[in-house]
Specification:
4 helices; 137 residues; four-stranded antiparallel beta sheet; 7 strands; three-stranded antiparallel beta sheet; alpha+beta; elongated
Amino acid sequence: MPEIRIRDAAQLLGVSDDTVRRWIDGGVLSARKDESGRLVVDGSELAELAVEQARTPQTRMASASSARNRFPGLVTRVVADTVMAQVEMQCGPFTVVSLMSSESVRELGLQPGSVAWASVKATTVVVETATETGGTA
């Protein structure tokens, strides 16, 4: 079972170290000391908590789509010329960038501060892991 240090668990969940410690104290997460005496949490338990915490925020936008990867967020930047546009959104802790026609930007009324959904459908998703030396595999 993978063991994850408190600092790393906090970073992965987008919360503070203190929040993870409060979850441990409150019984939300269990922890133990590793061989070095550092407090660690079970990776699979942390993954379960991450899924529970990743609830979709409620908005008043109603829509239907077959896309599974839908992220509600705020438009933070729009750069458009006469044909194409780059739209940047902040979706929770993630920045999502979309390239679309300038006509679509106008039709959707996208501007900084607009609430929108980023729907992502990809044929390739690259997954990386850290190696023992700290790099990626």
